[in-house]
Amino acid sequence: MKVTNNSPALQGVRSKGRAVYIHPGETRDVDLEGVDLDKAKRLPFLKRDGASQANHDGDNPSMALEVLEMAKDPNVQFMSFKSAAAKLLGDRTPAKKDGIIAALEELATQP
Sorting pLDDT into bands at 50, 70 and 90, what band is 55? Predict the structure, then answer.
């Protein structure tokens, strides 16, 4: 499957028990299945086989929760977190982390 990294930072996915790193803007062929595929699906800045993973009808609140989890992870760089948040928040993405978190929390609580 082709995977494109739409974040401004280097990203890694697991494939057949090993890490595959994808540079910003790069597209790579990666074998994703099972748990590895499920994990990659949760990353809104990764595009698989030409289908955008952001803004699925009706699942913005669940995606917001997933991006909020990125904010808690010390291994996730701020710009990766901000890029993922911008996919959900669009032009109204705040510049600072606290503002982004507040906006995502609001999105996550929408019906």
Answer: very low
Count of CB atoms within 10 A of residue 37's CB? 16
Q: Which of 42, 111, 103, 48 is nearest to 70 (CA)?
A: 42
Could you give the angle at the alpha carbon of 80 between the alpha carbons of 74 and 85, nearest 5°? 105
Element (H, E) at 85: helix 78-89
Write the secondary structure of 53-69 as one string of H (helix), E (strand) and C (coil).
Answer: CCCCCCCHHHHHHHHHH
Structure tokens at 68: 């909020």
Domain ranges within the chain, ordered by starting residue: 2-48, 60-108
pLDDT tens per residue across span 94-110: 999 999 999 998 888 87
Tokens of 54: 């952001």
Is residue 50 predicted with pLDDT exceeding 70? no
Instruction: Say which residues have a Cβ less than 8 Å from residue 95's Cβ, sequence separation at least 6.
Output: none
Q: Where are the alpha helices (DSSP H) in the chain?
A: 34-41, 60-72, 78-89, 97-108
